[in-house]
Specification:
With about 425 residues, the chain is mainly beta. Helix content is about 5%, strand content about 40%. The two termini are about 25 Å apart.
């Protein structure tokens, strides 16, 4: 189970304008992936429709190694001790040897999507990824009026693509994807942000039940011409993401200016959402937007962890992990991690083992008892920006432009890339 400012199975990629040169003239040795020439167009339905089955198989791709030592990793998602995925500023990458070497498997059709976006809008171009295994993965690429979802079943050698047309097209900046997650090989959700007003954010939620081949509109937070809120998702607050425990039971997280932790639950797969109250410990506050929640991760059907920032009278950044042992019916905060100014990055692998660090620091904080106690390990020369563990012992960290690995639960680290 992994997260940063959260993201279970979810990783962002920022592409800059120079990408046009990268995709139009790849350096020798960079692979080119070829996709189905007839993508399925998916419109925004008002009701659930039968899934459209794709009949044209993807074309074979020719993959070769890249000069991995010249690529900086922005984010990683390891599947096990050998296999994993990563984003650099310009590429989607794959490793088979614990991160020592990487293969460029970037979908070539991104070049076409980039060409539809005005130059001033490319600097904030973001891709989201969801990775279930070393073979099965999706990436969602936003354009101005639609999102292209690429899916691979062979580790990135070939891809299929589908188009999701949204109801609120953009003019300059691409559609903002707030959350993109798959629960299993068939079921996934995609949350888009369609606009903001003071203290409000408008979103749309889509769901697939056939592995991303088709997507159905599920719910929205919006307002009509007179300014009245419509839809089953609240317009109040800024949303940070969604996650699901099973196909029906899920949560929406974010922040708001009221003295309450933004936390909404659905029990019908996203059709309707209701607030779920969380206890705020004495001495802490959510007033003025000082609280932010991030989607919970579940380790089994009952036990999960919910990250929440809370404010305090004295200036500080206070990260609580709320724990549930009853499938999300109730949540109890454990003692906070405190920083004077910077935010945290974190990762939990099971109910007992969690890892956290202040973004950019050289100290990692470790718990082996579910957060009852934490110990600190100083790593000389490190500047941690992401943590990613696959077991209580084996994990990776992005430290500036380097990739570090630990084999003993974070006590010792060594550089494996570049």
């Amino acid at each position: 189970m992994r997260t940063q400012t959260w993201n279970q199975n979810q990783i962002s990629l920022k592409l800059i304008l120079i990408l046009f040169a990268f995709f139009s003239g790849c350096s020798p040795g960079s692979p080119t992936l070829i996709f189905s020439a007839n993508p399925t167009q998916i419109t925004r339905p008002t009701s659930v429709t039968p899934a459209t089955q794709r009949t044209n198989p993807p074309l074979e791709s020719s993959l070769t190694s890249v000069n991995s030592r010249n690529i900086s990793l922005d984010s990683i998602h390891m599947i096990d001790d050998k296999q994993g995925w990563a984003f650099s500023q310009t590429s989607l990458l794959k490793t088979w040897d614990s991160g020592k070497d990487w293969l460029n498997i970037t979908p070539a059709e991104i070049q076409t999507i980039l060409s539809t976006i005005p130059a001033q809008g490319v600097s904030t171009f973001e891709i989201k990824g969801s990775f279930l295994s070393d073979q099965n993965a999706w990436i969602a690429v936003p354009g101005l009026n639609q999102i292209t979802i690429f899916h691979t079943l062979d580790g990135g050698q070939t891809w299929r693509d589908a188009k999701l047309a949204v109801s609120t097209p953009q003019e300059i900046y691409p559609i903002q994807i707030s959350s993109f997650t798959f629960l299993n090989p068939q079921t996934g959700w995609l949350l888009t942000s369609t606009g903001m007003a003071t203290g409000h954010e408008f979103v749309e939620l889509y769901k697939t039940q056939n592995g991303g081949t088709t997507w159905d509109f599920v719910a929205q937070a919006n307002q009509n011409a007179s300014g009245e809120s419509i839809g089953s998702i609240t317009t109040i607050g800024q949303k940070t993401g969604i996650s699901f425990r099973d196909p029906m039971d899920g949560w929406l997280t974010g922040s708001t200016v009221g003295n309450v932790i933004f936390f909404y639950r659905t029990k019908d797969s996203g059709l309707t959402w209701d607030p779920q109250q969380l206890f705020i410990p004495n001495g802490y506050t959510a007033l003025g937007g000082s609280s932010s929640s991030y989607p919970p991760v579940f380790f089994n059907s009952k036990v999960g962890s919910l990250p929440v920032y809370l404010g305090k009278a004295t200036p500080s950044v206070n990260l609580f992990f709320y724990i549930t042992i009853d499938a999300g019916e109730s949540w109890t905060p454990i003692a906070p991690l405190v920083s004077q100014s910077n935010s945290f990055v974190w990762d939990w692998v099971d109910p007992s083992h969690g890892f956290a660090t202040i973004d950019g620091s050289n100290t990692i904080t470790i718990t082996t008892d579910g957060g009852k106690s934490w110990s600190e390990v100083l790593v000389n020369g490190a500047k941690f920006h992401q943590l990613d563990f696959v077991s209580p012992m084996i994990g990776w960290a992005i430290s500036d432009k380097s990739l570090l690995q630990t084999l003993d639960g974070g006590e010792n680290w060594h550089t494996i890339y570049p």
